[in-house]
Amino acid sequence: MWAKRGGIFLAKGIVIGAPRSGSGKTVITLGLLAAFRRRGTVVAPAKTGPDYIDPAFLGRAALRDAVNLDPWSMSPARLKSLAATQATGADLLLVEGVMGLFDGAVDNTGSTADLAELLELPVVLVVDSERQSQSVAPLVAGFANWRPGVRVAGVILNRVATTKHERMLVDALSATGIACLGAIPRDAALVVPERHLGLVLPGEVTAFEAFIDNAAETIGNFIDLDRLLSLAAPIAEGDAPPQPLRPLGQHIAIARDDAFAFLYPHLLDGWRAMGAELSFFSPLADQAPSAGSDAVFLPGGYPELHGEKLAAAGVFKAGLIAARDRDALIYGECGGFMVLGETLVDKAGQGHAMAGLLPVTTRIDRPKRILGYRRLVHAGDLPWPGRLHGHEFHYSSAKQSRLTPLFAATDARGDALPPMGAVIGRVMGSYAHVVDAA
């Protein structure tokens, strides 16, 4: 699906939203990606908001890397540029929304609707039809008419019980004038396992390819794919993007495995574009960061699930100490911050010795969920602007000695939060995931 504008052919795009979380956006988006791929349609996947796990699933289904489009943390210019770049060479940009369509940060911005309006893309609303019949019509009409700049172009009915139930829903929707693109029957096989931070990683789903095949078959059978494609709108040409966050060093060694899986592709792409060399290593395989690196990045992930293995990773920990001793910048986010500490206490209350570069103990045996967008002002040696946008999402907590914090922080509304993280020389980290400059 291409549109011609000013002599240039542009891919089209569409956003998959829902009235609330848990409606089935992720599974339906996965099924759409795989079903279109079966037909030879090239679809570029994207995820609204600061999500790490859903993009991993979307990329596996599309056989094409997904990108995050975060309308709170990223500037409009960044979003438009990322969307246009991601859509390059594709027939369709398919964007999975986050939470309910109009749900955003505590300052009432950053919603899926905000992104759809900015990119001028129509929304297909996934409605969980369980325990509902004719009331679906005022529900959909309310979402469609709530904001003039947001166009709800179609509806997918999910978890439909019977053919009779489907008829009742479709008949009611006819009064709205909004296209019903299909009805997905209730199916226990179309559920992705979850854990404390959300979905599990794709590699942890038993028979993941079979799951995707089933989703593609179901979506292909029950959704009018041609009609959905016809609703898509052209992706606007991206202006010159703002400067990306500067690389942490000229050669950045980045931890990447199941314990350190939370990386934003736009950051890595920006660092490469600015000439940085990136190398990757696996702490779970007891690999050390490259001895030639002048920066080490430990991203977030699930180190609490691998405490014993990380504690035994002597080569990895010696490599971090060597990096510190040669004055490399060592930066850890969330799970990476936990591993830079002295001890990690797992869910069972068992303590595991970590790298010991920061006098911090983290524990998840007393879980408390902390999440939200963060406005950050940093006091470390990071080569980034002083003011940053990021987010926080974790169940563990940190106890640390008196140290210089890495960030002064507020929430999205600007309300003050306790200082975050710790800095000793060029070793630093916090629970914050940095997304972009403020």
Brief rundown of the structure:
By secondary structure, the protein is an alpha/beta fold. Helix content is 27%, strand content 29%.
Structural overview:
This protein is of the alpha/beta class and 438 residues long. The protein has twelve helices and 26 strands. The chain has helices at 25-38, 53-62, 76-87, 112-119, 136-144, 163-173, 208-222, 225-231, 265-273, 307-311, 314-325, 335-340, and strands at 2-5, 8-17, 43-48, 67-69, 92-96, 123-128, 152-160, 179-185, 194-195, 198-199, 233-234, 251-255, 277-281, 295-298, 329-333, 343-345, 351-353, 360-363, 370-378, 387-394, 397-400, 407-411, 416-420, 422-424, 427-430, 433-437. The strands form five sheets. Strands 1, 2, 3, 4, 5, 6, 7, 8 and 11 form a nine-stranded mixed sheet that branches. The two termini are 35 Å apart. The model is unreliable at 1-9 (pLDDT under 50).
